[in-house]
Structures are given as C-alpha cells and as structure tokens.
Design brief:
Blueprint (H helix, E strand, L loop, with lengths): L3 E8 L5 H18 L3 E8 L5 E8 L2 H9 L1 H10 L8 E4 L16
GO molecular function: catalytic activity
Protein name: ABM domain-containing protein
Pfam family, one: ABM
Length: about 110
Amino acid sequence: MAPVHAVAFAYIKPGKTDEFAALLNGMSEKVHALEPGIRNYYNFKVPDEDMFVIVESYEDEAALQYHGETPHYHEYLEKAMQLFAKPLSFKINVKIPENLIPDWSSLQ
C-alpha cells in the first residue's frame, strides 16, 4: 500500500494560539507513542497569524483510519473544536476517512 501524506491548516481564534499549541503538542506526543503506522506528525505556527500547519504521514490508509479511531484523537478534537476559528483546510493524497471529519456546524 502507498503511504498517505496530509497537510492541515488550522485557523485558531485570536488569543487561543498558546492553548492550541499545547493541545497540539500533546497530541503529537501521543500519536508518535501510540500509533504504529505513523511516519511523521508535526506542526508549526505561522508567524504573525493565528494559524498552524499540521503535517502528517502514515504508512498506509489503514494507519490513517486507525488514527481517526483512537481515543486521543477524539479527546484532542473535542478540545480543539472550541479553539478553531473556522473549519480546517486539508490537502491529502487520498480520500479523507469519514471518522476524521468533525461536525463543523458546532463551531461557535
């Protein structure tokens, strides 16, 4: 199977970037520790913007699917939804599994 590569652009509410950075860094630690199919998972904040870029690589589509099923992903998403200013923007080389797509209607 071919590897999966994804880039997500997270737009964060003003004043919430430090909180999101801590949440995202904790998520990155868990992904590397608990997901055997991960190749790479890292992020960076775009200077002078309330935006983060999240770069992910998985061994295959099954590893990406597994990522969306993990408790740490669901815990992260529940907290992150309170910090997003708008829905994530994705670039990915496969169809995004349904279990990775949150209900954006809950953004406030």
